[in-house]
Design brief:
With about 260 residues, the protein is of the alpha/beta class. The protein is about 25% helix and about 25% strand. It has one domain: 3-Layer(aba) Sandwich (Rossmann fold), CATH 3.40.50.1580. Strand 9, helix 3 and strand 10 form a beta-alpha-beta unit. The structure holds zinc ion. The site of zinc ion (ZN) has 7 residues, from helix 2.
């Protein structure tokens, strides 16, 4: 079963057949929204809106632990996450779709782990994203940009130009507020996880060009259609069995 985390409306993928909606209670509280379960072709998929269906949960208040726990409870083994980001790398244009391969975490005040004791677990996070899923996604659309470092900030405010200059200096390519601890929790839960990053704007101080709201909305709309196509194709060609190491994340990780 494949899980998809993104904005509301993402489940309106052509070919998606909804079968049921479930609410799940977890030891960490309630997930952002109900899980929308259904299928694309012969594959079972589950959608969750990260910010709730009315987009009322800001990034620093998302219950990441409950969301990932809920997916695992349903039987999901792989998660594709869609994230809007600001472009730091000057090669990026609004509307570009990137599969980052690294994360630098600047979040400050979030539930970072399922293991707050007595079990003590240190997962390997050298490669934060599932290599197998990344390869599959890169086959779906020739225009996807491969690789990049996602800087995760606490928010909800946007960054200063000074912060963006610093992030650029340390190797950041894009900036957003929602990849952590989501990606790390998925690894702790032994799920495969990948991020589809949509460049919606230039990060602070990167350009003097001023984007109009109309342009941003139009860019986002076009990108969403493309993201839906990418997800639909990826679901169909995803191997049934996992060959990657994500499922073994807890092996030799516990003290
Ligand atoms: Zn994997």
């Amino acid at each position: 079963m494949i899980g998809i985390i993104g904005g509301s409306g993402l489940y309106e993928i052509p070919g998606f057949r909804e079968s049921e909606r479930v609410r799940i209670n977890t030891p960490f509280g309630e997930p952002s929204d109900e899980f929308i379960i259904g299928s694309i072709g012969s594959r079972d998929v589950v959608f969750l809106s990260r910010h709730g269906h009315e987009h009322a949960i800001p990034p620093h208040r998302v219950n990441y632990r409950a969301n990932i726990w809920g997916f695992r409870e349903i039987g999901v083994k792989r998660i594709m996450a869609v994230n809007a980001v600001g472009g730091i790398n000057t090669r990026y244009r609004p509307g570009d779709i990137v599969l980052p391969d690294q994360i630098i975490d600047f979040t400050k005040n979030r539930g970072q782990t399922f293991y707050d004791g007595p079990r003590v677990v240190h997962i390997d996070f050298t490669e934060p994203y599932c290599s197998e899923m990344r390869s599959v996604l890169l086959c779906t659309d020739g225009g996807i940009l491969d690789g990049g470092t996602y800087i995760c900030t606490e928010g909800p405010r946007l960054e200063t130009a000074g912060e963006i200059a610093f992030y650029r200096n340390i190797g950041g390519h894009m900036v957003g507020m929602t990849q952590m601890p989501e990606a790390a929790l998925a690894r702790e839960a032994t799920l495969c996880y990948l991020c589809i990053a949509v460049i919606t704007n230039y990060a602070a101080g990167i350009t003097r060009e001023r984007l109009t709201t109309t342009e941003v909305v139009e860019t986002m709309k076009q990108s969403t259609e493309r993201v839906k196509q990418i997800i639909a194709s990826a679901v169909e060609i995803m191997p049934v069995d996992r060959q990657c190491s994500c499922k073994d994340a807890l092996r030799d990780a516990e003290l």
